[in-house]
Amino acid sequence: MIGYTRHRAIKDKYDEQRLFANRAWTGFAIIVVLMLALSARYMWLQVIAFDRFSTRSESNRVAVRPVVPNRGMIYDRRGRVIAENQPAYRLEIVPENVPGKVPGLEALMDELSTLIPLGEDDRKNFHKARRNYNEFDSVPLKFNLNEREVARFAVNRHRFPGADVVPYLARNYPYGELLTHVLGYTGRLDAEDIASVDAGNYRGTRTIGKIGVEKYREKELHGTSGLERVETNVRGRVLNVLERQDAIPGTDLILSIDVAVQRAAWDALGDRPGAVVAIDPADGSVIALVSKPAYDPNAFVHGISQRAYDAVLQAPGRPLFNRALRGGYEPGSTLKPFVGLAGLELDLVTPQTRVFSNGRFYIQGYDRPYRDWKDTGHGWVDLGAALEQSVNTYFYQLAMDMGIDRMHDYLAQFGFGSVTGIDMPGEGEGLLPSREWKRAVHGEPWYPGETIIAGIGQGFNVVTPLQLSNAVAALVNGGTLYVPRLLYATKPAGFERAKRIKAPVAAQVPVRDPEDWLAVLDGMERVVNGLQGTARIIAGDGRYRVAGKTGTAQVYQLGAGQEYVEEEVAEHLRHHALFVAFAPVEAPRISVAVVVEHGGAGSRAAAPVARATLDAWLAQEIEQEPLQ
Amino acid sequence: MKRWLPAWAGAPRLDPVLLVLLLLIIGFGLIVLYSASGQNMAVVNRQAVRLGVGLLVLLVISQVPPRVLRAWTPWLYGLGIAMLLATLVLGVGRGTQRWLDLGLFRFQPSELMKLAVPMMVAWYLHPRVLPPDWKNTGVTLGILLVPTLLIYQQPDLGTSLLVAASGMFTLYLAGLRWRVLFGFAGLAAAAAPVLWLVMKEYQRDRVRTFLNPEADPLGHGWNIIQSKIAVGSGGLTGKGWLNGTQSNLEFIPERHTDFILAVLSEEFGLVGVLLLLLAYVMLIARGLVIANLARDTGSRLLAGALSLTLFVYVLVNGGMVSGILPVVGVPLPLISYGGTSAVTLLAGFGMMMSIYGHRKFIR
Question: What is the ipTM of this complex?
């Protein structure tokens, strides 16, 4: 009771109420002010900055997705499907949707591998590929799942956030290794590939032509990507397709290859490494292009494992090497018809000019003999007989009279020493020697002996089977040198008619006297049909007449194969069999060049292969007309 | 005995103004929730049941005289502290220990403290001379600091701030001198660097993010950025109910809980936001009117503090969603999905109703 005397110590209800009211309404005023400030903030966001946020909301909502065009199909000349698209499934991961960043990814892959076997390669490729994609993009992990794997994943899908099985169209090559060296294959699109194409058009594309026609015709085959504007939720799941601009599928290609002829040549080669190139002299279209051994391109389509790749790389006979296109061989005696024609057209000899062969040919002042293959010699021979029996002495003499420079200039007109320009990447150049070339490359003068052996296609001469076949085509069609073409026609999508693609003409070899050309062709006919012809064994039953020329040569490897030559092939250098041929003699429809590595004499190993190729083609030619 | 009977029997009447405002907000909230939950009727039903329970609690408490409520206060406060301590040991929750599993349902004791703290402060100050002297101020601070720290360490920054705020508002309304208040404010500002040091890393991240959300747009900044996009793209009148793309496509995180205002802003635009804010302001104003009608100190302080605390909810949530305040887990009162918060809030309004209904019976 004493404490009551203290100042304001008594509880004064009315005073307190006033104080409270004061405080309450002061507080309310502050509240109103702050609420107005908050309202102003919303006003700023929703009215003043509306456009900006509206745009951002829209770009959140709408995603633009590429629509991958179907790759064009490839047919052979007769309409057989040789490259097609098959439905397949691949496993993809969207890294962003995987919880736990990189360790999470690894854990996810560990989990996945209990259902779908994943190799070290798959993981490595995945991480490599991941760098080329955005975090929210789907990155392929494994291609070509089998049905069991797809089903197993589907059941357990909820366990794997971020992973999904995606259907796609995978390239399939029904003829496998038979056409590998023509078609090449498609493989996983890598960083280098992306740099070489229009990235925008490849946004959804996962594979690209790696070599062969698949690479050379990538642009036509790929088509044009379409676009799809889709509404997606925050996890990227498509809820709605707002707009779609369809992809334009790749163009279907019809190649001039005839699978039947290709198969015949392939089979005829047997187990021996070699190459066959067959060309239609009438239009420069390539009928067969065989390089053996080959490999199965389908293994590469889904991303080949390192081990499988190593196995292919180290397989005997180097299956990755395209002998038809890049293999450099000494032409040997297969060059003689061209040297002979040069002699006639340069007016150094006539068809009747005769040379005596005693088995040995000497250059004046030198002791070294240049031999005929027949030790006793062939006696007096004119051009026809010289071709028939492959008489070296005739061509030694002719080469000496002609000189290396004139020989070089004349033979160059047939495309020797330069690429043919075929529509396929990676072609070899071959080598047509000249005085100038030797000085430039070797820094040495030209020796007369080198001219002598050049006359029989030896020494520095190098040709590819493709060059040889194309040159023979020009020889038999009256001198029209085509840029050989694999592409025979294109067939745009829909119901449009296929459009014939004509091989461009590279050059026209001038014809001084048609009799000269006929004389050479006549000589080549005698090789097969003459009594002393070196390739009489393929004369056949006479349904049609074949002409040709044998050759035996040393191998000469180009580029990538260089080291291999020195280590492995040195002992076999003189044993490669060559044969060039055309038929029918009266109106040639096909020219062929055959190389059989380590095949021995051209007549025995290579000529039957050529004959089988000609048979396959001409049998069909008789039965049916080619596609127009 | 008649005051224990319903209104039509002459029992204390519910405040119609408060009731109508509450029902409007709740109804609007359920409509927004339907959209924010991805048109999930089960979620809406569950929330409706909780709100129903909350309204029942409101009805019951409104019939209890403030005197009785005050008598329960120390027990309630003690129970709350005990449960907070229990969460230390038995708590469940993702990364934090906020919930107590009571078998039938999970309960968040910190929510209870939002009511218990202002009640306890009001209880303490009720018989004492106001404005409070140093001693009483000190005791009051003790009453509010103990639960605040307990909640803070769970960790739950948002709720601990709200609990502290509710206690401080009681002190403020009790007439604590301005210079003391400013002194506290100054102390708080000075303590900010200390607070930074004791903050958990995720809390620091939130502050950093608040200061510069675009620095980590896919990580910590994501919530704020997407929320702002949702609000901003709503414009003046909104994209329309169920048409909010940010919401439907799940760009807004926590879209039916803490960030439900972003959904509302996106679909109902500035108009919707302003109407909601207006409803809250009216609710607060009505609460202060009731407080002024109260005849005793404790009731007055309690009603006033609850009203002011409601404002803090709105400001912090609204500021967070619009990116002017850091992300702290404060729900939008009566609209965000969540049971404990809704029931607690409605229980608070029940007390206001009680104070309103019993204003004439107080001697």
Answer: 0.90
* Residue A333 bears catalytic tag: yes
Largest pairwise CA distance in chain A: 159
State the smallest CA–CA distance between residue A310 and chain B in angstroms: 42
Among B251, B265, B319, the residue with its CB nearest the CB of A234 is B251
Separation of alpha carbons A326 and A328, rounded Å: 6
Q: Which of A333, A357, A469, A591 is catalytic?
A: A333
Please tell me the distance from the alpha carbon of residue A583 to that of residue A578, in angstroms, as a whole number: 17
CATH code (residue A390): 3.40.710.10
Are A53 and B229 in contact (CB < 8 Å)? Answer: yes
Give me the sign of the Cα torsion angle A54, A56, A60, A64. Answer: positive
Helix ranges (H only) for A139-179 are 147-156
Strands of chain B, DSSP E: 100-101, 106-107
Contacts of B334 (CB under 8 A, 6+ apart): B22, B25, B26, B29, B51, B342, B345, B346
CA of A8: which chain B residue's CA is closest? B129
How far apart are alpha carbons A505 and A490 in whole angstroms?
Answer: 19
Kindly state the DSSP code that residue A565 receives in the 8-state scheme: I
Name the minimum distance, in Å, from the CA of A107 to any CA of chain B. Answer: 22
> Which is nearest to B229 in space by CA: A56, A331, A549, A176?
A56
Q: Please answer yes or no on whether A27 and B169 come within 8 Å at the CB atom.
A: yes
How many residue pairs from chains A and B have C-beta atoms closer than 8 A? 144
- Using the Cβ of A242 and the Cβ atoms of chain B, whether some distance falls under 8 Å is answered with no
On whether any CB of chain B is under 8 Å from the CB of A237, the answer is: no
CB contact at 8 A, B233 and B198: no
Please give chain B's pLDDT, 363 residues, in tens. 444 555 555 556 788 899 999 999 999 999 999 999 888 899 999 999 999 999 999 999 998 888 898 999 999 999 999 988 888 777 665 555 666 666 556 678 888 888 899 999 999 988 888 788 888 889 999 998 999 988 888 777 788 888 888 888 888 998 888 888 888 888 878 877 777 777 777 777 777 776 666 666 656 677 888 889 999 999 999 888 888 888 877 788 788 888 999 999 999 999 999 999 999 999 999 999 999 988 888 899 999 999 999 999 999 999 999 988 888 778 899 999 987 888 989 999 999 999 988 886 544
Distances in Å between the alpha carbon of B285 and those of A452, A547, B317, B347, B360? Answer: 117, 112, 19, 18, 21
Q: Do A24 and B131 touch (CB under 8 A)?
A: no
Residue where a domain stops, chosen among A207, A231, A255 = A255
Q: Using CA coordinates, name the residue in chain B closest to A50.
A: B232
Q: Is B1 on the interface with A (CB under 8 A)?
A: no
Q: What is the pTM of this model?
A: 0.66
Q: With beta carbons under 8 A apart, name residues in chain A contacting B311.
A: 31, 34-35
Structure-token pair, residue B37: 């939950």
Contacts of B236 in chain A (CB under 8 A): 46-47, 50
The domain locations on chain B are 13-357
Domain count, chain A: 2
CA–CA dist B319, B231 (Å, integer): 12
Nearest to A23 among B127, B172, B273 (CB): B172
Name which of A20, A34, A38 is nearest B300 (Cβ-Cβ): A20
- Does A244 share its domain with A328? no
- Residue A205 is part of which domain span? 64-255
Report yes or no on A360 lying in a domain: yes
Backbone angles phi, psi at A244, to 5 degrees: -140, 130
Q: Coil, strand or helix: which one is A304? A: coil
Q: Which SS3 state, helix, strand or coil, does residue B290 take?
A: helix
| Whether residue A454 sits in one domain with residue A504 | yes
